[in-house]
Design a protein that fits this description.
By secondary structure, the chain is mainly alpha-helical. The protein is about 50% helix and about 0% strand.
């Protein structure tokens, strides 16, 4: 039998699923032009890596 894996401090798959659901909720009622404007406004600088210190 395999030993159970140790508990992870951070689960990347779970984090990305959460981010995908949150983003889908924000964008679900927007038009294509509004979505493009959202990403232009947000940009890449607002992203925070979860394990960044």
């Amino acid at each position: 039998m395999k030993k159970p894996k140790s508990k992870k401090d951070f689960d990347a798959v779970q984090y990305m699923r959460f981010q995908k659901k949150a983003l889908a909720k924000i964008l679900e009622h927007k038009t294509n032009a509004e979505i493009l404007e959202y990403f232009k406004k947000k940009g890449l600088s607002s992203g925070v890596r979860p394990s960044a210190k």
